[in-house]
Amino acid sequence: MPKTNNMPKGIDLLRDPSWNKGTAFTMEERHELDLIGLLPPYVNSQDEQIVRVLQNFRRKSTPLEKYIYLINLQLRNEMLFYRVIIDNIDEMMKIIYTPTVGMACEYYGMIFQRSLGLYIMLNDKGNIREILQNWYKKEPRVIVVTDGERILGLGDLGTNGMGIPVGKLALYTACAGIDPSVCLPITLDVGTNNEELLDDPFYIGVKQYRVRGEEYDEFIDEFMSSVKEIFPRCLIQFEDFANLNAFRLLDKYWPDYCTFNDDIQGTGSVALAGLFSAMRITKQKITEQKILFLGAGEAGLGIGDMIVAAMVDEGMDIVDALKRCWFVDSKGLIVEGRDHLNDHKLKFAHPHEKVDDLLGAVKALKPTAIVGVSGMKQSFTQEIIEQMSSFNERPIIFALSNPTSKAECTAEQAYQHSKGKAIFASGSPFDPVEYEGQTFVPGQGNNAYIFPGVGLGVLVCDAKTVPNEMFFTAAKTLASQVSQDDLDKGRIYPSLSEIRRVSLAIAEEVMKIAYRLDIARAPKPDDMKATIESQMYEPNYRDYV
Ligand code: NAD
Prior knowledge:
This protein has 545 residues and is α/β, with parallel strands linked by helices. Helices cover 45% and strands 10% of the residues. The chain has helices spanning 10-14, 27-32, 46-59, 63-76, 78-87, 89-96, 100-106, 108-111, 128-133, 163-176, 195-198, 213-230, 243-253, 262-282, 298-313, 318-322, 343-346, 358-365, 382-391, 411-417, 451-461, 468-480, 484-488, 499-516, 528-534; strands at 118-121, 142-146, 183-189, 235-238, 259-261, 291-294, 325-329, 332-333, 369-372, 396-399, 423-426, 433-435, 438-440, 443-444. The chain has a 7-stranded mixed beta sheet, with helices on both faces. It has a 5-stranded parallel beta sheet with strand order 1-3-2-4-5, sandwiched between helices. Strands 12-13 form a two-stranded antiparallel sheet. Helix 4 packs across helix 7, helix 22 runs antiparallel to helix 24 and helix 24 (499-516) packs across helix 25 (528-534). The mean pLDDT is 96.
């Protein structure tokens, strides 16, 4: 008999998305649960409902309409929502996540219907504990939090950025089976510097400029300590903070909190996994690579650190490993002696003459790989890709900026300009490309392959912290899940349809690290894989009576 003690009845049951089954309540349930008369007579199966949802979904003419339709479903019937997402992940991911979620955030005020998370504003300082206690679901085990300052590559969207925590947590459930009732999306409203939003009558946030400095830090501090006090077993994922805050907050909190920054660590991990797969194609070693990044922000430096860790793991000296990573940012090539380099960039500043742009850097350095994490669309020009192809048999070209409109080049451009030689991955999805009779399936180098599995492992063993080693092992595990068939198609990540299996494998490796480092609070299970599997949420209806 399923546990249904706290299940509501009657209209409250139909209005509760965690319990609601809509027209699939059986006649017996309708009688027992005070639903008679509240539903049309015909009883649907979940499969019939899925067919109806998919037909309605596919009839919507724009991605944003599809997004709104899915959010409505999530607000109405969570099990049906997740069944549809999981079974159609390729089609759905691009709607609930990048690229469509970016557009949804831009219009968030206009399309807002009902809150799916918590909004905490600066005025709430001193009362954050009380606000957290207003959360109405089970005790949260995962919070995804943003302050909306760097939403994808779209910049400061303030409180409209709430679409990101909501979307990421939907991926936690869909990709790794984290129970949605323990997921909590949070937006911290510290103002916005986006003038358009400040003038927008439909903006849902506080209309004031961003607060910085001590006041901001105290606010974040109260938030972190309140979460730890009220929800002591909760993982906190930082998401889409601007880089002036992201690195410092990570440095400050990771040693004592169960927390990580997905833009830095998750991105580093997924890109490294892609590079591992690329090595299987080129038959080279990571230590033989010279990587040139466009963009030296959270994503770029996070990837750089992870690649250096991989080179060191393969026996290279750290000083030599650092020298194999080069960065171009908005001021040109990062070289020794350049002004205004923070510590994170400084270690990648090598002796070299000044170079103003990416093309110049490609010509001067002859890298084996270029990695786009700048948010600068179309910055991998035909000339740059041709140059890369002139001195590499298989140039590695990762255009990771999101959403699609910000990608450094399209999949088609990468394959065409390299004459089918590029090993390509992008942050947002691209359709397969036909080139001279061959079909290339571009891989999606998206953190969604990493954070759900890492989070699952952390939750199951109740880890106290999330050391970087977990992301390194996640990269290795993800790469190990790529089949020869994937590689033959040019795809350096497994198919999305495999993602729950991948997350399970990552979770197991993450747990092994937690037990080895003695940071797990749950007793060590004899069979880790079976324990994880048993805790993965499956959105199938069950009988209530
Ligand atoms: P960020 O703001 O921290 O860094 C952006 C970097 O780009 C900065 O170093 C900046 O100097 C540089 N830049 C800006 N304009 C430039 C120009 N004209 N020429 C050269 N460099 C320039 O942002 P971030 O968090 O690093 O994210 C950057 C991009 O990466 C975004 O589009 C984001 O969506 C994407 N991203 C993708 C994934 C993924 O999973 N694929 C993950 C994280 C971030």
